[in-house]
Amino acid sequence: MERIHVSVRARPLSADEAESSPWCILGNSISIPNHTTKFEFDRIFGENCKNNEVYNVRVQDIVSAAIHGFNGTVFAYGQTNSGKTHTMRGSRTEPGVICLAVRDLFDVIQQDMNREFLLRMSYMEIYNEEINDLLAPEHRKLQIHESVERGIFVAGLREEIVISAEQVIQLMEFGECK
Ligand SMILES: Nc1ncnc2c1ncn2[C@@H]1O[C@H](COP(=O)(O)OP(=O)(O)OP(=O)(O)O)[C@@H](O)[C@H]1O
């Protein structure tokens, strides 16, 4: 199985965008009609798809693997206004993949009677090439280091021990208010 998957998520277009966009989605490829330009992806989620579907199809396996000891990363990349926050953070009416992942994570580990888990959470931003700790607003301009024991890490980043999905979501809200 490939280690890196690249998915595209199309969001609903405004009337202006729909008029000017030349792109056409067919299956898992995007192309310009009557043109040779064509890009293929592992998966394309159409504009009617919900965060739940993105989570179930693309993210759940990564969370599940993490519980079994594999490192995993999910990140959203795209131009401004393309739907990164909608997908990752979501809203009260439609939680994003981070909330869905956190809930799933706690559900799964609570059912596992044979192991103990210790979960720690960090939350940081990279803004104007500076790393700021969103859980400890006084920790600004942090540095990236590398060591044999820890691999690549951000020195001085706060790590909170977390015991419930609600606690993680509250900490995220705290970080976003700063
Ligand atoms: N799949 C979707 N379905 C419905 N509305 C969406 C979808 N994706 C994004 N939107 C809406 O489009 C707008 C832009 O989305 P969003 O704020 O998530 O973009 P962004 O990539 O995070 O932008 P920025 O980089 O500027 O922060 C928002 O109003 C959002 O609610």
UniProtKB/TrEMBL annotation:
Keywords, sorted A to Z: ATP-binding, Coiled coil, Motor protein, Nucleotide-binding
PROSITE patterns: KINESIN_MOTOR_2
All copies of domain Kinesin motor, residue ranges: 3-178
GO biological process: microtubule-based movement
PANTHER family (UniProt xref): CENTROMERE PROTEIN E, CENTROMERE-ASSOCIATED PROTEIN E
Domain of life: Eukaryota
Binding sites annotated in the UniProt record for ATP: 78-85
Any one Gene Ontology molecular-function term assigned to this protein's record: microtubule motor activity
Family listed: Belongs to the TRAFAC class myosin-kinesin ATPase superfamily. Kinesin family.
Matches recorded under SUPFAM superfamilies: P-loop containing nucleoside triphosphate hydrolases (SSF52540)
Organism of origin: Lithospermum erythrorhizon (Purple gromwell)
Protein known as: Kinesin motor domain-containing protein
